[in-house]
Every structure is written in structure tokens, then in C-alpha cells.
Amino acid sequence: MVSEKFTFGMSEDAKRIREEVFVEEQGFQYEFEDKDSKLWTLVLYLDGTPISTGRIEPLDPETYQIGRIAVRKAFRHNKVGTYTMKYLMNKILSLGGRIAVVHAQVDKMGFYESLGFKEDRECPRYYEEHVEHSIMKKVLKKSVKPKLKY
Ligand SMILES: CC(C)(COP(=O)(O)OP(=O)(O)OC[C@H]1O[C@@H](n2cnc3c(N)ncnc32)[C@H](O)[C@@H]1OP(=O)(O)O)[C@@H](O)C(=O)NCCC(=O)NCCS
After folding, report:
1. Ligand 1: which residue has its CA nearest to atom 21?
2. What's the 3-state SS for 1-37?
3. What pTM did the predictor assign?
């Protein structure tokens, strides 16, 4: 059975997955940040085993950045990443946000495109440590303009 757990701040399970995926597998040196203690963080579990993580960061009242999406190697290519993103996008909506932004590793852009994200061509690609990133965006909910009564 798959279950989800949101914590305000990074749980030990989220930390372990990020260490395994971003530090050991991908070779990032500066994986952890002070703000990790202040962001909503998700871990998905399969029968009690932690399998994926991700976090969200408010950029403005309607825009949230989804980041640190990681599925443990043994659980990839089974839509776990897709479910992880969907839980996080629903969390954004529940917090009153309507736009999701990701800073995608360029070779993972296909994953985000499969979820409806599009590259923001006004933002140049950049390097975070040794990996090229692209900023991508998805509108989760259209903005509703209030109707004027006069
Ligand atoms: C990227 C990642 C989260 C994808 O997770 P996943 O559970 O394997 O992905 P899904 O099974 O939900 O994939 C859904 C679709 O995304 C696309 N996709 C998946 N992995 C991809 C990749 N590495 N590159 C490009 N497209 C990819 C495919 O179209 C896939 O559909 P398909 O299975 O029908 O072909 C996972 O590979 C991972 O954790 N990688 C290491 C950490 C990482 O790089 N995180 C992203 C940082 S920006």
C-alpha cells in the first residue's frame, strides 16, 4: 500500500533519500540548505518503505517551486515520480497557490513535460554545481478575476 507523509521541514526519511540520490548517485556537494527546515516536504512509502521525496517552496502567494524530487533507484519507471509530483501539486492548491515552477535538470525535462510543465524561455538555463538546469512552469489553476458590480 502506498501512503504519503507531509512534514513541515525535512524528515529523516527525506534526508536519507536525498543523500542516496543527489549526493551519492548524482555527486552534488551542497545538497542541504537552511531553508529545508521551513518547507513542506513529502515522503511516499510503499508498505512502510520510503520510496520518494520532494518539497515545495513559496515564491509568492500564488507561485510555489517544487524541488528535490527524488525516487529511489529501485522504484523508478513505475510512475512513483508522477504520483510524487501530483501530491505536491495538490498541496500547492490546498495552500492557495496556482502556479508550479521547477528548476529541472535538463536531461529530466521529459519527466516534467509528461506532467504538463513547459520551459520558461525568458529564463536562461544555468548550472547548479555540475548539472545544467532549466526553469519550467505549469499553471495548475487559472486566475479568477473578481467581477465588478458597477
Ligand atoms: C526523474 C525521476 C524523479 C523520475 O521518476 P520516475 O518515477 O522514474 O518517473 P515516472 O515513472 O513517473 O515517469 C513518468 C514519465 O516521465 C518521463 N521520464 C521519466 N524519467 C525520465 C528521465 N530520467 N528523463 C526524461 N524523461 C523521463 C517518461 O515520459 C515517463 O513516462 P513513461 O514511463 O511512460 O515513459 C527519477 O528518475 C529520479 O528520481 N531521478 C533522480 C533524481 C532526479 O534527477 N530528480 C530530478 C531533479 S530535476
Report:
1. 111
2. CEEEEEEECCCHHHHHHHHHHHHHHCCCCCCCCHHHH
3. 0.96
